Amino acid sequence: MKVGILAGGLGSRLAEETEIRPKPMVEIGGIPILVHIMSIYAAYGFREFAVALGYKGDYIKRWFADLCQLSGNVSVDLGRGTLTSDRARARDWQVELVETGLPTLTGGRIKRLAPHLGSGTFMMTWGDGVADIELDRLLAFHRAHGKLATITAVRPPARYGHLEIVDGRVERFTEKPQLGEGWINGAFFVLEPKVFDYIRGDDVMFESEPLEHLARDGELMAYQHHGFWQCMDTSREKKILETLWSGENPPWPRRAAGEPR
Known about the structure:
single chain; alpha/beta; Spore Coat Polysaccharide Biosynthesis Protein SpsA, Chain A; eight-stranded mixed beta sheet
C-alpha cells in the first residue's frame, strides 16, 4: 500500500524557517519533519511514498538525492570523477517526488498524485504533523466499514491552562488539558481511488468541497485517535516538538525516525 504526503505548501506561518526551505524540511532534532512522518509509516511496514511537491520542491529533491548518495561510508575517485557509497544507513524506502505545481491546493495535489498511488486503497497525510497513531488499527477500521474515506479525528491539547470556576473560586486547574470536545481533522487518511472523483481540479481544497461531499454521501468515516498528535504550523509548535523529541520518552518513537544524516 502506498502513502501520499502533501509537501508543497508555502508554510507562511513559519516564515522565519520557510524562507530557505519548505516546511516539511524544517528539522526536529536534526531530522526533517517529513522524514519523521515517513518513518512513522515505515515502522508499520508502509515504505512506498509519493510526495507532492510545490514550494521549493527542489530542496526536497536535493535532500533525498544527497541521502541516497552519501549514506554510510563514501568513496571518491577523483581521477574518474566518481562517488560511491556503501549505503550502510540507507532506508529501504521507495520515494516518488512529484511536481504538483506551486499554486495548486490540497485537493489538486492529491489528484495529481493519483497516477503514483496505485489502483487500490492508499494512505494520505500532510507533511507537517506527527502522532503516535497505530496505523494497523486505522487501516483495520477503514476496511471494516467499507466506505470510501477515513479521516483521523484528534483532540489537540489546549493552548492555555483550563480553569473550572464556581462563584469566583477556582475549583480545578488543569495545565494544557486535552479538549473535552471538538474533534478536528488530524489528517492520516485512508482513501479509496474513487475519492479522486470528488476532486474537480487544482483549485480545490480537499478539506472543503471533497470532504463535505463525501460526508454528505455517507462515505466519510472518522477514526478517533485519543493519543498524541501535534502539527507544526508555527514556531511555537516547532519548539513544542523539539522539546518533546529531546526528552527521554518522546511521544512518537525514536526508532521510527532513526538517525539523522
